[in-house]
């Protein structure tokens, strides 16, 4: 997750060069791709740093309602209303294809956002807005979110169990308290992007970690999603993926002189 000391150092370095960051974008709760959640202490530290440097914070919060292990910490916006723009969405609690959300922002920022939206898309789909309105006003949507959470928690547990049962030694992964993703790290010397074509041959897909870095890092990492498949399919998928990982380990050891 976001490390306060690293943020402070980066902002100070920019200021020494006569530059400044325009804003900080963060997903503090059940983050995509890692599934981790920023602690209460870190939230306070991040906000204090942002205030010292006059830094606007954009808090993207699409996953906080998808909670498995207790209630997540309060949003950053609840702690610093003036310095935080808060983004939410119905796509994770209603239907993924309905790309509609909301923004909490200071009036001056909100007005500029409205102009930007009008210039780019004119307005969101009327059908999407009508469907969302009826979902929120005529359906027991809070109960539906609880149903989703039970379903996703069972699928998360199935993925975690399968990873523990099948993955070779040296593989690690996060244990998210909510959201839709697990972040797995391959053993040393393996490359998730190079391995993807072999996984696809086994009809297993993931997102290589390099897709989440701007500097080319993340070669050992992969994002695993557990939201769309049944527990049985998840377990079989992990079994197949584990076979691909084991084959790459064997190949690595052979070229390193460790094979027979």
Protein model, in words:
The protein is α/β, with parallel strands linked by helices and about 260 residues long. The protein folds into 2 domains: about 5-140, Aspartate Aminotransferase, domain 2, CATH 3.40.640.10; about 145-255, Aspartate Aminotransferase, domain 1 (Alpha-Beta Complex), CATH 3.90.1150.10. About 45% of the residues lie in helices and about 15% in strands. The chain has 7 helices and 8 strands; from the N terminus they run αβαβββαααββαββα. It has helices at about 5-15, 40-50, 105-120, 125-140, 140-165, 190-200, 230-255; strands at about 25, 55-60, 85-90, 100-105, 170-175, 180-185, 205-210, 220-225. The strands form 2 sheets. A 4-stranded mixed sheet has the order 1-2-3-4, with helices on one face. Strands 5-6-8-7 form a 4-stranded antiparallel sheet. The radius of gyration is 21 Å and the shape is globular. The protein starts with a helix and ends in a 5-residue tail after the last helix. The mean pLDDT is about 95. Its cofactor is pyridoxal 5'-phosphate. This is PLP-dependent aminotransferase family protein. One of its GO terms (molecular function) is transaminase activity. Keywords: Aminotransferase, Pyridoxal phosphate, Transferase. It holds the Pfam family Aminotran_1_2.
């Amino acid at each position: 997750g976001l490390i306060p000391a690293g943020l402070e150092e980066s902002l100070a370095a920019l200021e020494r060069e006569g530059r400044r960051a325009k804003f900080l974008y963060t997903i503090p709760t059940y983050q995509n791709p890692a599934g981790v959640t920023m602690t209460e202490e870190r939230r306070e530290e991040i906000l204090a740093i942002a205030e010292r440097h006059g830094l606007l914070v954009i808090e993207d919060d699409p996953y906080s309602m998808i909670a498995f292990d207790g209630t997540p910490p309060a949003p950053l916006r609840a702690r610093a209303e003036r310095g935080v723009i808060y983004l939410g969405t119905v796509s994770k609690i209603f239907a993924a294809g309905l790309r509609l959300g909301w923004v909490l922002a200071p009036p001056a920022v909100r007005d500029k956002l409205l102009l930007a939206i009008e210039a780019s898309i004119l307005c969101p789909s009327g059908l999407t807005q009508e469907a969302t309105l009826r979902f929120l006003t005529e359906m027991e949507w809070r109960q539906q979110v609880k149903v989703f959470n039970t379903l996703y928690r069972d699928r998360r547990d199935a993925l975690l169990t399968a990873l523990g049962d099948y993955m070779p030694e040296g593989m690690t992964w996060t244990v998210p308290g909510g959201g839709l993703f697990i972040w797995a790290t391959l053993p040393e010397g393996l490359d998730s992007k190079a391995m993807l074509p072999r996984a696809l041959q086994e009809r297993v897909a993931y997102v290589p970690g390099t897709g989440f870095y701007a500097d080319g890092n993340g070669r050992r990492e992969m994002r695993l999603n557990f939201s769309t498949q049944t527990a049985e399919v998840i377990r079989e998928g992990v079994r197949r993926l584990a076979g691909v990982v084991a084959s790459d380990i064997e190949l690595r050891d052979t070229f390193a002189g460790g094979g027979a």
